[in-house]
Design brief:
The complex is a heterodimer of chains A (353) and B (303).
Chain A: H1 3-6, H2 16-39, H3 44-56, H4 59-84, H5 92-109, H6 115-133, H7 135-144, H8 148-168, H9 201-219, H10 221-231, H11 233-238, H12 243-270, H13 281-291, H14 296-319, H15 326-339, H16 343-350
Helix pairs in contact in A: 2-15, 3-4, 3-14, 4-9, 4-12, 4-13, 4-14, 5-6, 5-8, 5-12, 5-13, 6-12, 7-12, 9-10, 9-14, 13-14, 13-15
Chain B: H1 2-33, H2 41-59, H3 62-85, H4 91-114, E1 119-120, H5 142-146, H6 151-169, H7 171-181, H8 183-188, H9 193-220, E2 223-224, H10 231-241, H11 246-267, H12 273-302
Antiparallel strand pairs in B: 1-2
Helix pairs in contact in B: 1-6, 1-9, 1-10, 1-11, 2-3, 2-4, 2-9, 2-10, 3-4, 3-9, 6-7, 7-9, 10-11, 10-12, 11-12
């Protein structure tokens, strides 16, 4: 089921074949969204031009785009890591929720610790909680062959409800009517890179992890083994790779990165945990991983693209009457087309498999 | 007397909340037997809920609303199926993509056509009629179970034995099962397993569309972007819980319907609704784990 998702190596350069396979779903989605815009009486080219200007026209806007891309780099990476091992993890969204709440909890509870202790502590806790959240589906998949798609999907709903319960009850900020924790201590906030933009040190962490991912995929034995296991689990087993153990490891790693995405979002952007914390970062991460075809550079570019759409979509809704939902429409279509195989065209690009 | 009335109310509410989950779950079950796990049920419910409400308001006919809502779901099902069977796209990703894209389209449409963000309240919506059964209606519990329900609820429960019979006893049912389990055998008969799968996804779409319009014109009377409240995924939970068997799936849907009805009651007594909402999803993980353990034990015994 997952073979087509794991085939591309995390190459630093996109070969033209991969580039074409990446751009095709995007173009198709843009054309279909243009029809939707046209039917609603908007000029699609004008809307797309506005989106581009609002995302990249000037330092402020670029900073906003990068800030919006930060959680998506991490959720895209979390998804790609699991896909590569052949584990179909659709539960990164849940990790963002539990990781975000865990980091916020540390951030508003251990007030008084110096920043150099508190901030790493909060981030590490978000990583651990995210990894723990994926322990059960990882073990169930590896030991009992329980379908990880279903378990991780169900865990998303459990994470959303569980964190909603916690911020409405035990962790509700005193005197607050809406479902939110207290604000985290200033010492737990990730430093801003370009104030007043929300772009923060989390972006640097995300990019550093992408670089590590590239090195890991191309230079380490574990990265190689993971790729083999994802491509052909039986061959990997025959070569002496402990595939079930590898799947558990990669699910934990995927959860850890997903939890970190939540931690960085809580400490960098929001400053606390609120209900409805993630607007679907985990699911957009799936689109990012697919569009980026699992490569480090691809994930980076795809995350920037979806980050740009999210920020510029919000601004153009203010200035023109184009509903921001055009972004969701584009994102959903990109996901569908990114996994579609246009038989005769793509078979030429992919070569013999 | 008040206690008995409360039980009647809970039973009635539970059956109402079961109907949409049961409809979508039966559709998803047939789809899965045919070889496709339908993650997009929620999007088809949403489309059915919106179009059904608009038709119910403009024509004043609940029958027309049901037909159009089912068709909306069916068309989405066909599109989704074609992406999976003809473009070889991964069913899980396509399903998630449909949920995101359709939710976006629905909100885009609400803003563009009605200038409304998220909610649509239309005049003169034709609501589903209630079928009151004389004499029976006055019997405690039994009255709440059998009387005062609408035609869609009756149809949903009728679908359970029909689906069981269809899968077990008919030629088409056998072909559907073969398309899922042994596509080569279907091909050897000169039939296309892909076309059979497409048909099963269209059926799932029709049922999910009905489930959606049941929520908008049967339960609430208005449309809201959150109207499905993830019930497409609860339906998925139900047919996984029921292991593709119609009666067990219906039992799962009924159980989740009771959770839904209880959750409203429990809220008044200090039990947080969020924790009750976790139950269906947690149950699926538990059931899948128990099944896998049982299978492993059976295999160990045989060896």
């Amino acid at each position: 089921m997952t073979d087509s998702l794991a085939t591309t190596a995390p190459l630093p350069v996109l070969r033209w074949r991969n580039a074409a396979a990446t751009i095709a779903p995007l173009l198709l989605a843009l054309v279909l969204a243009a029809i939707v815009l046209g039917l609603a009486g908007h000029n699609p080219l004008e809307v797309y031009r506005l989106l581009a200007v609002e995302s990249f026209g000037g330092a402020k806007r670029i900073a906003a785009t990068l800030a919006a891309a930060t959680p998506l780099i991490l959720t895209g990476l979390a998804t790609a890591v699991a896909f590569r091992a052949g584990a179909f993890n659709v539960g990164v969204e849940g990790c963002v929720f539990v990781g975000g709440l865990a980091a916020a909890y540390v951030g508003f509870t251990y007030v008084g610790l110096p920043s150099i202790v508190l901030l790493p502590l909060a981030l590490i806790v978000s990583v651990l909680v995210g990894a723990l959240w994926m322990l059960l589906p990882g073990l169930l998949k590896a030991r009992l062959d329980v379908d990880e798609v279903v378990t991780t999907l169900m865990l998303n709903f459990i994470a959303v409800s569980l964190t909603a319960y916690l911020v409405n009850g035990p962790l509700l900020a005193p005197g607050s009517a809406n479902s939110a924790t207290p604000m985290v201590d200033a010492a737990a906030r990730l430093p801003k890179l370009l104030p007043p933009s929300t772009l923060n040190a989390g972006f640097i962490i995300a990019v550093a992890l992408l670089l590590l991912y590239w090195l890991w995929g191309s230079r380490t034995a574990l990265g190689f083994e993971t790729r083999i296991a994802g491509l052909n689990a039986r061959f990997a087993t025959a070569s002496g790779i402990d595939v079930p153990m590898l799947i558990v490891k990669m699910m934990l790693l995927s959860g850890a990165i997903g939890g970190l995405a939540g931690g960085i979002h809580a400490l960098g952007t929001v400053g606390r945990f609120v209900s409805g914390f993630s607007p679907g970062y985990g699911f957009t991460g799936i689109a990012v991983a697919l569009l980026g075809r699992g490569s480090a550079l691809g994930i980076f570019l795809a995350a920037i693209l979806f980050g740009a759409l999210a920020t510029s979509g919000a601004t153009i809704q203010l200035f023109s009457d184009v509903p921001i939902e055009i972004v969701s429409i584009l994102q959903g279509m990109v996901m569908i087309f990114a996994v579609a195989r246009f038989g005769w065209i793509v078979s030429k690009w992919r070569g013999p498999r | 007397m008040a206690g008995a009335e409360m039980i009647d109310n809970v039973v009635h509410a539970a059956i109402v909340m079961t109907t949409p989950v049961l409809l979508a779950a039966i559709g998803g079950l047939v789809n899965r037997v045919g070889g496709i796990v339908n993650i997009g049920l929620d999007s088809m419910m949403l489309a059915g809920a919106l179009l059904g409400l608009i038709i119910a308001s403009s024509t004043g006919s609940w029958g027309a609303a049901l037909v159009m809502a089912a068709l909306a779901g069916g068309v989405l099902g066909l599109l989704m199926s074609l992406a999976i069977t003809r473009l070889d796209a991964n069913e899980i990703i396509v399903g998630l993509g449909f949920n995101i894209a359709v939710a976006g389209l629905v909100r885009f449409f609400l803003k563009s056509a009605y200038g409304s963000s998220g909610t649509l309240n239309l005049p003169d919506v034709a609501r589903l009629p209630r079928i009151d059964i004389p004499v029976l209606a006055d019997i405690p519990i039994l009255g709440a179970v059998l009387s005062g329900h609408d035609p869609v609820t009756w149809a949903a429960w009728l679908m359970v034995p029909l689906t069981a019979w269809f899968l077990a006893r008919t030629r088409a049912g056998l072909r559907l099962r073969a398309a899922g389990a042994a596509p080569q055998a279907v091909r050897a008969l000169g039939l296309s397993p892909l076309a059979i799968r497409d048909a099963s996804t269209v059926f799932a779409g029709l049922m999910a569309g009905l489930a959606g319009v049941y929520l908008s014109i049967g339960v609430v009377g208005i449309f809201n972007e959150g109207i499905t409240a993830g019930r497409g995924f609860i339906a998925l939970a139900a047919f996984y819980f029921g292991r593709n068997r119609p009666w067990q799936t219906a039992l799962g849907a009924l159980l989740f319907g009771f959770f839904d009805a209880f959750q409203i009651r429990l809220q008044g007594r200090g039990v947080p609704a969020e924790l009750v909402q976790i139950l269906p999803y947690a149950m699926v993980i538990v059931v899948l784990t128990l099944m896998a353990l049982a299978m492993r034990r059976a295999r160990a015994r045989r060896a």
